[in-house]
Amino acid sequence: MELRAVLTTCPYCGVGCNFIFEVLDGKIINTMAAKTGPSNAGSLCIKGWSVHEFIQHKDRLTKPLIRRDGVFKEATWDEAYDYAASELLRLKDTYGPESVAFVGSARCPNEETYIFQKFARAAFGHNHVDHCARLCHAPTVAGLAVSFGSGAMTNSFAELEHANCILVIGSNTTVSHPIAAKRLMKAQANGAKLMVADPRKTQIAQLADLHVQQNLGTDVALINGLMHVIYKNGWHNRAFIEERTENFPALAEMIEQFPPERVSQITGVSVPDIEKMAAWYAKSQDSAIVYVLGITQHTTGVDNVKSLANLAMLCGHIGRPSTGVNPIRGQNNVQGACDMGCLPNAFPGYQYVNVPENVAKFEKAWNAKLSGTPGLTMVEQVEAVHEGKVKGLVVFGANPVVSYPNANRVQKGLEALEFLLVLDIFPTPTTALAHVVLPGASFAETCGTFASSERRVQLVREAIPPIPGKYNWEIIPELSTRVGYPMKYASAAEIFDEMASLTPAYGGMSFPRLEAEGLCWPCPTPNHPGTKYLHKDKFTRGLGLFQAIDFRPPAEAPDDDYPFWLTTGQIFSHYLTGTMTRRCPTLHHENPEVFVEINPQDAARLEIEAGEKIRASSRRGTIEVKARITETVKPGVVFIPMHFLENAANRLTNAALDPITKTPEYKVCAINLAKAA
Amino acid sequence: MDKLRAKVRTLLSEGQVAGYLGYLIKDSHPLPHLFTPENLEEVDQAVVAPDNARYPLDKLLIPLAERYPEAAFAIQVRGCDERGLNELYKWGQLDPEKVVPVGVACTQEQADYCECPGPWASVVDYGEKCQPVAKSLRVEQVATLAEEDAFQEWLGAFKRCIKCYGCRDVCPMCFCKDCSLEHEDLMSTGQLPPDSIFQLVRAIHMAGRCIDCGLCEETCPAGIPLRVLYKKANALVKDLFDYETGSPTAGPSPWKMLGEEATLETKPM
Ligand code: SF4
Ligand code: SF4
Questions:
Q1: A65-130+332-520: which CATH number, 2.30.42.10, 3.40.50.740, 1.10.760.10, 1.10.3720.10?
Q2: What is the tens place of the pLDDT at every residue in A355-396?
Q3: What is this model's ipTM?
Q4: How many angstroms separate the CA atoms of A116 and A473, rounded?
Q5: Whose CA is nearest to atom 2 of ligand 1?
Q6: In angstroms, rounded to a whole number, what is the distance separating the alpha carbons of residues A93 and A70?
Q7: pTM beyond 0.90
Q8: What is the CATH number of domain A564-675?
Q9: Residue nearest to atom 8 of ligand 2 (CA)
C-alpha cells in the first residue's frame, strides 16, 4: 500500500506551474495544484489539472520500432540502437558528417537537451542542431539580445501583480498562459490599467480597460506611433535615456515619421486610442509589457521585439520590479532548450560558436573536435533535405510534420530522407515517417529540470518509472557511444552538474538548491540567490541599444483569389500539435475538432451557417474546418487553431521567414473560404 | 505536534488503521502523505498543514478507501475536513466505521479568514479552540447591494473564468463520475469564458453539499469569490430545509429527496 504525492513541474506552457501527482500503488491517479508553487500559488489551468490523463494512455509508445519495407516491427533496444547507429555511421561515411542534422525538443528536461546537443556537436563535429524555439520565440532571443544583451523575460510573474499598467500585445493570455493571466487579473484588481492590443477580441481583451484591434502584422507601426506620442508630449524618461541607453537620436528620427494619423491608417486603431495607450503606458509609475507569439511569428518578428524594447527604454520601464519586457514562453522548457545550447549558433549558456575561445572551452570539456561555424536552423534543415544535402535527421521529442509551416513540403522532405530517427512518447505523423522510432519517457517518468519563462529553473521529479523501461538520458549516451563518441551518466543530477560547470548563468545551481522554489538565472555562484528581474542598474550588454525600426507589411496580403486574412493560434483546452492534450478526455470534450472563427458579416455574405463544414485554402494547401461564427474576429479576418493534425492549419500557413531568425510568419497569411461541396 | 504524532504512532503500531493520511515536509514543501506501519519512523516528521498549504485530504482518501475497502484509515482533519467526512458518509463515498479522524483546531486568524462557524474537529489532537465566526460579512456585504448591481458584479466576475475546472477538481465534495458542468445539455463547450451559468450550476450542486473549506476560492486563478456564492447557497438550504451541511446530526441530505435519478425535463408543478 503506497500513496505518494510527487511534486513536479507542468510539461505544457512556460509559466512553470508546480503540481502534485497522486500516485497510488505505482499508478498516477490524479493531479493537484501545488499550493506552494512559486509561479502558480495553488492554481492550474485546465491542461494542468488534466495532465495525468495522457501519461499512462494506451497509445504510449513502449517498444522500439524499426521500419523495413514500409512496415514497422517491434525491436529490442539493442537491435534499434545497432540499426540506428549503423545507419548514422553509413551516412556520415558516405556523405560526410554534415549530412545528418538534429532537431531537439523544447519539452524535455534540460539534462536531456544538454546531452542531445552535445551528442550532435561532439559526435558529428558540426552545429546543425536546433529546436522549435525557432518557430516561436527566436525573435525574442535575437531581438532582446541586441537591445538589452539578454533574450529572456526581464521580470518574474508574481511581480506583474504590482504593476500599475500592463500592455499585453499579441498574447491570448487566458488561453495560452492561463496562470500568467491570473497575475494580470490580480493586477487589475489591485487597480492597474490593463491594455490589450490584439487583432482578435480574446477573453483578456474583453477584460481589458482598453482593447485595440490592430490590423494583422502592423505592430511596428503601432509601437512607433505610441513612442511618437510619448516623445512629442515629453512623457519619455530623459534621465534613463541619457544614463542607460545609446543611439536614441536614430530612434527619435524614425518615430518622427509615425504621427498618430498615419499610424491609425496603417493599424486601424483610432487616434484617441493610440494617445490613451501612450499616456497610460508612459505616465504610470510601473508599466510592464507582456507579449507572446502574436509579436514573434511574423516576418517582422525581430523588429516587433526590438520595438517593444525601444518602448520600454523610452519610458525607463525596465530594470525595476513590476516593469520590463516580458515574453512568455509557449513551451515548458523552451527557455531551457535555448539555455542548453540547442541552437545552431550557440553552445550552452549562449556562448556563441563563432567565438574561438568558446569552441576551445567546449572542445576541452567534451574532449572532441567541434565546429566554429553556425549550423542550419530547423527550416533550413528541411530545405537542405530537399536539396539533397541532408540525408539523415535525428528528431528528439518534436513533431515537425505538424508544427512546421507549409507542412506539405516538410512531409515530402522527411519522406525523402535516407534515415530518420525519432524519439517520442506517442505515435505522430513524424514517427510515421521514421526508420527507427524510440519510445520516450515522459516528464512524469524522470528527474530533471525545466527552465520556465521567468528563467526559473525548477525540478521535475519521477512519479513512476519510465514506461518504455529507459530514461531518455540513458538513450542518448548509448546512441552516442555506438556512433563513436562515448558518453555515460549515472543520473540526471550528474548531467546537470556538468552542464552547470560550463554554463555561467547556471553556475551556482545544483539539484539540492533547486528543491524549494527553484532559482531564476543568472545564478553564477553557489550562494547567489538568483535573479528576479534583469537589467537592474545596467543592461546585460552595458547600455541599452535603441534601434530605429521602420514598418514593413506582412509577406502575404489578401487578394482576389485569397481574400481573407488568416491568423493561427491556440485554444484553451489544447496545446501545440495536440499529441498529448487530444488524448485527455477532459480536454477533448471541450474541443474535439478543428474550426474556423469567422465574423457574422462574412458568414452572411458567404451564406455560411454555424457548424457548417467549409474548405479553407491558401496557395499552399487546403483543409476542412467547421464554421464558428463569432465577433471575436473582425470582418475579413479568420482564425484557425493549430492543434488538429488531421486538418493542420499549417497546411495553409506561409513559410515566409523573418530575415534574421528564420521564424515563419504563422500569424498572417491569405486564404480563401468556400462551402465544402 | 507531539500529541498528534503519539496518537498516530499508536494507531499505526497497534494496527488500528492501515495508514494515516496527513502531511509531511518533503522536497522542502508541505505535502500530503500516507504514513504506514512499514515506515513508522516517518511519523516523527508528520506535521499539520500550514494554513497556506491545505489540500483536500478527504478527496485523497476516497480512491484509497475504494482500493482497500477492508482497511481503516486515520486522516488529519480540520473542522471543514470533518464536515466533509460527514457529508461523504451520507453520500456513501466513505464508511464511517473505517475512518479515524485526527483532529486539528484552527487558529483564530484562520477562522477569521474563513469566516468559519466550526473551526475545529470533534476531537482535537493539535491546536487550541478559538472563537468561531457565526456570520459571514462577505455574504452580508453582497446582500446590501441592489439586486441588479449584485447581478452585474457577479457576471463581471464570471467573465474572468478560464474554465480550469480547478474549483471542481480541488473540491472534496466533487466525487460525481458524470459532472453536470460537462453535461452537453447544460453547458456549451470549447470557449472562454464559459457560459455565465457555469458557476451557478456549480453553486446549485454545492448547496447542501459544500463544507466551506474554501479550497475552490484559493485555487481560482480568476479571483472569483466562489466561497461567498456557496456560503449563500448553504444559507438558503438552511433556511428552506433546515439542513446544516456537514453536521453529523443533520439527517439525510435534502437532495436525497430527488431519488436516485434526476432528469432535466421540467417537472409538473
Ligand atoms: S498555465 Fe501553463 S504551466 Fe500552468 S498548468 Fe497551464 S499549461 Fe501548465
Ligand atoms: S476555479 Fe475559477 S476560473 Fe477555474 S473553473 Fe472554477 S470559477 Fe472558473
A1: 3.40.50.740
A2: 999 999 999 999 999 999 999 998 899 999 999 999 999 999
A3: 0.93
A4: 9
A5: A13
A6: 25
A7: yes
A8: 2.40.40.20
A9: B161
